[in-house]
């Protein structure tokens, strides 16, 4: 019976991973296709196309829509919630990552084809700031773009990153800690990151997003509401090699305090942890 349950769980896990990958691939294909359609329409109609891009119709596909900015940063068209900003210089109201992407777009000479970038933007379906991937192309003084929202990290991805960090620590302790603290080696993946605590000293020795925590007492760590986090985790790991713990913590992607479910694992005298967020 246990064997059948394990097989069933593995099949469900594989299905969820394949489904997530397929969904993201489908979103990318649909976004790129919508941009190509918009580019062809713009080539035939010029700036008259902005009216079609800015209304609900053939250039809006669920939460994917066409938007256009000029090389000065003025929004010229949008089929999404940013339509309220049409005619305004939006370059200064963009977040730092989107502003950087916009500046990079201006550096790409015309004729280089479709480019890609990642940024964070509010999803008009749920009102949450989420990761977004955008395809864009410069045509003269216009930049046409279509983006799609990326899925949040999954529990499976969190466990996989924890295991990757644990295995790396076993092979190269110093190099792995250095890589985590320098945000290299693939130990920071959007809202997933690794942190490591020395169970002997009970202090952080590595953290994937907040280097100010290094050498601080993990046992004294509390959530934004003052509820202990470090102490219960240390108690949990005192007599077991792996564990899980849920608490409240700021998501580095959304910059909001959210529920975080952490997967914990002992590696020698270290505790390695990675958690995923849920709103």
TrEMBL record:
Signal peptide (residue range): 1-20
Domain Single Cache: residue ranges: 20-103, 166-231
Listed GO CC annotations: plasma membrane
Protein keywords: Cell membrane, Membrane, Signal, Transmembrane, Transmembrane helix
Bilayer topology annotation: Multi-pass membrane protein
Main subcellular location: membrane
Transmembrane among keywords: yes
InterPro entries: sCache_2
Keyword Transmembrane helix found: yes
Subcellular localization, as worded in the UniProt entry: Cell membrane
Protein's name in the database: Calcium channel protein
Organism: Pseudomonas kairouanensis
